[in-house]
Write a structure and sequence with these properties.
Two copies of one chain form a homodimer. Chain A is built from twelve helices and 22 strands. Chain A is of the alpha+beta class. In chain A, strand 4, helix 3 and strand 5 form a beta-alpha-beta unit. Chains A and B meet through helix 1, helix 11 and strand 19 of A and helix 1, helix 11 and strand 19 of B.
């Protein structure tokens, strides 16, 4: 059995280990602390930093095939491992393209994959100055200043979205600019600005592509956001869209995975605009929050699908088994410290609710601490169930 | 979170750890070797012998609630732990009653739970002699001699079944006596003999009972045996029986669990006789082979149900999600040594087949090395799928 190595020991790594446990397949994890979610379930846990070249090289050389559960890994080391003959999926150049939202957007545009109109800010100047000076303090204009300038001269009008090119996740690194006031707290650093979509629904499709170029897409999901907070309320599968929209969403996601030539999983977040057009919002080259429900709701989970790709086994059927609704379990507001779960009885008393806790030892407001997947005979039933279960569980400190 | 301790680190312990991983719930395992199936997935593994009083006492004192995955544990230590205030489920006196097939049968008969007519061989003499002499060598007649005598004097006629009172599992410890010839190789040691059922089908119902006396039964399964070898071919859920039979089987299983007053799982193996009557064959106070399919085929798995009982959480819905067929993966004949799986591609290429490998490092003929659960839109489809998958997988040595 090929030993699988995963860079990152968070919940996505944990759930991949969990899928591998069915097969008793060896999975090694590299991350900073044995307190992290994946540690108890990896067959071997290596303490180290996936951002450090030496750590990634040593770890990569100790396994047969390497993957990631987070994009912010040291890809230089991954390129070197590929040069040494190691199998690394997704491929390092794909991770590079995607982890920088600027190059990701340029890639989408270049391949005529529908996405919102955008512009990179300060990219050219930054790069040329960096090359010449190697000293950021000498930069005369910052990317935010460039954004402000573009608004001042009428190139961009409100509302639009500013995104940090790197380091953003879970809503971080995204800033919505609706007015002059929002120009005052622009994100620092290299960024892109993009036209705000006129959103009817947010959708997502996780696509799996193996080393032979075979593709399997998971059913399209609908993400329902809180009306005021920029937070996922819950996620529904199947999405409440017609067959044509579903086909177009799936087709766009598949074409995106094919364009990248990714081997592994590509989670494609989509905007369904009010005019019926669909845009790629952004992509992630790994298991994704929008695929959590696949554990119970689909024949093959996204985690097992990734394992099948990594081990060279045939991909599995992605059909939906039951309608489902998935809600993240977030740390309660006002609570930062050692984790305590309040209301487990209520969750476990809800019919057909599957609780996943990630074992994070400390909680903080809105931190992802787990998720709940509810199944139903109908989507409405699943939705009611997940809402009831979510409302009965609170992650607090005592 | 209450720390759960399990005596035994085989596949049943492994799958219980696996269920607990969803909740990130701490599970400690006591067994002899870190090579055993549960070891990589327990949050803590203690090397020791669950047959040794000191080991069980030390382990039991280190956890909050204790359970078993095998009956042959040191129950004296468990009684002592209960006396010290430890929660032990199933209760030690229930394990005692069940682990001796003689007292188990007597219990069934005493509680008017239908079972085959039987007789214990040499029990009275054994016990009285043991009390007096503490020396087995002084026993004048062995239980097998007593069996032979009962046949000679016409008390018992062929065919009948001889069962060792302790230590039997997976078909071991059961001897079918069809003729004089079979009398020559009777099992040694204390035994019981029972009337052979006139079997139409073999059924099983796993019953869960919590500390409040609440009961949830899993759907009745049908076990299909190989026509010549005494081996489970595969197992089907739902069983191919009518509603009345199903109700009577479930009712008998529930009454059995209630009679024992067990807290935990009771797997009740049943004979459906050709005259329509149902007998309890035997029971096991733990997760059971006949509940493997519940992982994918039911809303709550038998493993998660046990965890809910151990942690005091409400029991879950046991409804069937899809028809299923389950086949054990057995070591191939003629192969003893380091395990190698041949034909994984075939298994993973079968639609809706879920592979479970237990990670046993050495294989031998007919050893349980894993199991396969297939789901189908119909039972027939599930059956075809599991047969195809099973036939493509071989556990061999290279």
């Amino acid at each position: 059995m090929k030993t699988i190595g995963i860079l990152g020991g968070g919940q996505l790594g944990k759930m991949t280990c969990h899928a591998a446990a069915d097969w008793h397949w060896p999975v090694h994890i590299l991350d900073k602390s044995r307190d992290f979610p994946a540690a108890p379930y990896a067959t071997h846990f290596v303490e180290g930093d996936f951002r450090r070249s030496e750590d990634v090289l040593a770890f990569g050389r100790s396994v047969d095939v390497l993957t990631i559960e987070i994009e912010s890994v040291n890809t230089e080391a991954l390129h070197q491992l590929v040069a040494e003959g190691k199998e690394v999926y997704p491929q390092p150049h794909v991770i590079d393209l995607i982890k920088d939202k600027g190059t990701q957007k340029e890639f989408l545009a270049k391949h005529e994959l529908a996405t919102s109109p955008f512009e990179l800010c300060d990219q050219s100047r930054l790069i040329s100055l960096q090359e010449k000076l190697r000293d950021f303090d000498l930069l005369e204009t910052s990317p935010p200043a460039e954004v402000q300038e573009k608004v001042a001269n009428g190139e961009w009008t409100f509302p639009f979205v500013q995104k940090a090119r790197t380091g953003g996740y879970d809503g971080r690194g995204v800033h919505i600019v609706r007015s002059e006031k929002d120009l005052e707290n622009l994100l620092p650093g290299p960024c892109l600005i993009e036209k705000m979509a006129d959103i009817d629904k947010e959708l997502a499709v996780v696509v799996a592509r193996d080393a032979n170029g075979q593709i399997r897409a998971f059913p399209c999901v609908e993400m329902v956001f809180h009306p005021t907070a920029n937070l996922l309320e819950y996620q529904l599968c199947p999405a409440r869209i017609n067959g044509d929209t579903q086909d177009r969403a799936t087709d766009l996601a598949i074409r995106t995975a094919e364009a990248f030539g990714i081997v592994g999983l590509l989670a494609v977040e989509l905007f369904l605009n009010k005019d019926g057009s669909i845009w790629v919002n952004e992509v992630a080259p790994r298991p994704h929050n929008s695929g959590h429900h696949t554990i119970e709701a689909c024949v093959t989970s996204q985690y097992q699908q990734l394992l099948r790709i990594l081990t060279g086994l045939p991909m599995g059927d992605t059909d939906m088994r039951h309608p489902s609704a998935m809600a993240n379990v977030l740390g309660a507001e006002g609570h930062t410290g050692p984790t305590h779960y309040d209301g487990l009885d209520g969750v476990m008393g809800s019919p057909a609710v599957f609780m996943h806790l990630y074992g994070k030892t400390t909680t903080k407001p809105f931190r992802k601490m787990g998720h709940l997947t509810a199944l139903g005979d109908t989507l409405e039933q699943a939705e009611e169930r997940v809402k009831a279960a979510r409302d009965s569980l609170r992650v607090i400190t005592r």
